[in-house]
Design brief:
Residues 10-126 form the Amine oxidase domain. It is an enzyme of class 1 (oxidoreductase). This protein is an alpha+beta fold and 180 residues long. The chain has a domain at 57-175. Helix content is 27%, strand content 16%. The protein has helices at residues 10-21, 64-70, 96-100, 123-129, 139-148, 156-163; strands at residues 2-6, 25-29, 41-42, 50-51, 75-78, 85-87, 93-95, 172-175. The radius of gyration is 19 Å and the shape is globular.
Length: 180
Amino acid sequence: MKTLVLGAGIAGLAAAQDLHQANHQVLVLEARNRVGGRIHTDRSFAPTPIELGAEFIHSSAVPTFPLAEQLQLKTFAITQQEDTLVRLRNGDLRTVAEVGCKERGFSDIRAVHWPEALGEESLAEYLVRNGLEGQRIPYKLQEYISDFDHAGALSAKAALDFLHDKSAEEGDYRILSGYD
């Protein structure tokens, strides 16, 4: 059987791989001059790869972690204590976790009592309904939105499940040779 896969982002490449393993003759069509979709590693600036798109593997529980191990890619674990630093407008340095959680009055985003999602409510609708817009959106939800899509296309229930997922406490991993 012949199958055409549109887009060589991670989802398109994974679909092509699964179809190929199921004995399909697969053609992947990509509009850009590179594969990877949101994964975009730039090696032209410095000896160390710079990630312009997707940057982390979010815990060892996600499907990309065993793939990195299978391909023998070296990873660097980033725990919450080693979180990325950001400079605030007043000049202070804070970790991303502090900016996204503690400065908004939360000690642990998973301990907050989040109102339930209503039916098939989108994450965008949920955020508006609960007064969490703009800078009031907790960092972990901002991360979730940027990892998957815009908030209007995401399920509020799935986002809340993500916030309560204990595997996310493990931290993130960076692929040292570049995510691409």
